[in-house]
Amino acid sequence: MINTPKIRLKNLGEVEQAVMEYLWTHGASSSEACREALASSRPMKDSTIRTVLRRLEEKGYVAHETEGRTFIYKASDQRQNVAVRAVKNIIDRFCGGSAEQLVLGMVDNAVIDRNQLKRLAREISEKETVEKPAVRRHIVAERMGKKSEEKPIKKTV
Questions:
Q1: Parts of the chain belonging to CATH 1.10.10.10
Q2: pLDDT of the chain along its 157 residues, tens only?
Q3: Which of 51, 3, 121, 102 is nearest to 19 (CA)?
Q4: 14-75, what's its fold?
Q5: Engineered SS bond to 62: which of 9, 56, 80, 89, CB 3.0-4.6 Å?
């Protein structure tokens, strides 16, 4: 489980989502660069894009730095982390905090099928098997004041 801060991001509107997609894809940008890039699909006035970016900043999705007199906006967090918080919010609001209830509902409603779920379970299991011993070795080695490569720990069951 990813440890996420208790920040509750407000939902994104369609235009805000388009701006976030641009920033996640292209990185830090001025309001003018965002406006020009989105002009073919979402024409906006300069004041409109600045308002959208200001609202995104108020909601915690973007931050800005100043270069001369120009604000340069960048996403406050990676797309995946924002998605995780959005799903966590859904789990809390609609599933009583149970991720299992959400996943079972997704299987029941054919959002994901049982084979995908089995494949994910296998991948998670394999990932845990590979990562846990390495993490344990590192923690124990640190406690002993040694480099983690020195003494690998045998896994006992």
A1: 14-75
A2: 443 444 556 778 899 999 999 999 999 999 999 999 999 999 999 999 999 999 999 999 999 999 999 999 999 999 999 999 889 989 999 999 999 999 989 989 999 998 998 998 899 888 877 666 666 565 555 655 555 454 444 444 4
A3: 51
A4: Arc Repressor Mutant, subunit A (1.10.10)
A5: 56
